[in-house]
Amino acid sequence: MPMYNEEETIGSVVVRALRHVDTVICIDDGSSDASARIAEACGAIVVRHRINRGYGGALKTLFMKALELKVDALVLLDSDGQHETHDIPNMLKPILSGEADFTIGSRFVDGGGGTDMPAYRRLGIKVITAASNLSSDLDIKDTQSGFRAFSRMALERLRFDSEGMELSLEMLEDARDKQLRVLEVPTVIRYDVPKGSNFTAVSHGFTVLTWAMLSLSQKKPLLVLGIPGFGLLATGAAMGMQTAQGFTTQLDSVIGDGISAVWIGVLGLALMATGLVLQSARGFLRHLLVREFGLD
Predict the structure, then answer these.
(1) Engineered SS bond to 141: which of 1, 2, 108, 191, CB 3.0-4.6 Å?
(2) Mean pLDDT across the stretch 169-184?
């Protein structure tokens, strides 16, 4: 569990989690309250960060500690009580049976949900998930769930650089690149806890969505640049046709509209051309890596 100033809830979450697992590891990410002392008193192993490193930094430390302890599997859940600890066996079952390497507790598959989930959270998650699936092709319905479980192989293979909440998407893309089997497990996430997670707040949501769009632009530049480019080209063409029709009546106005039509059309062509070049370059480099170095 990543943990940052969660003294109100951490004790009960640790106690309930220990009913289903051998060991609980809490990463105290620079808390200024009694979170670490309470977690230790309740039976958890606590690793302390001297400063707040963010969600991604806490997960890096958590993965390192889990590998150091030579665990068979790791379950990740929030320390604020939003995740139901009695779902831990369901998260672990596909991993321990060899069906999956990486499971996600999902609110949006049959059997899953969120108690009193605010509408803006649901909308934000849906938008981020749609953008992420366009770039990763994983078809995950709940990319923002922090309730996750990993096999030993997944812990050894997964690598991520992000320090913030965008890590949730980076991890999924890396899992796809490493050909890890990802499976969604239905779960219910609570929003009536004393201190609910803020990861879908506007700032975090914007950060994650920005990361998803940047990743999409790298993997599918023709889609990201070509569609807006075609739209601009069509707009410029429409303005040009309208300008031509009114050429004989209002010359001054026509000149201004004509210039606008030209630069909008040129911008659209430039975006389409850039997308095509980047898509071709990406395909060529991928082919070169596979042919020369056997990398995919």
Answers:
(1) 108
(2) 89
3-state secondary structure 90-157: HHHHHHHCCCCCEEEEECCCCCCEEECCCHHHHHHHHHHHHHHHHHHCCCCCCCCCCCEEEEHHHHHH
Over the chain, what HEC string results?
Answer: CEECCCCCCHHHHHHHHCCCCCCCEEEEECCCCCHHHHHHHCCCEEEEECCCCHHHHHHHHHHHHHHHCCCCEEEECCCCCCECHHHHHHHHHHHHCCCCCEEEEECCCCCCEEECCCHHHHHHHHHHHHHHHHHHCCCCCCCCCCCEEEEHHHHHHCCCCCCCCCHHHHHHHHHHHCCCCEEEEECEEECCCCCCCCCCCHHHHHHHHHHHHHHHHHHCHHHHHHHHHHHHHHHHHHHHHHHHHCCCCCHHHHHHHHHHHHHHHHHHHHHHHHHHHHHHHHHHHHHHHHHHHCCC
Q: pTM for the full model?
A: 0.66
pLDDT top residue among 123 and 281? 123
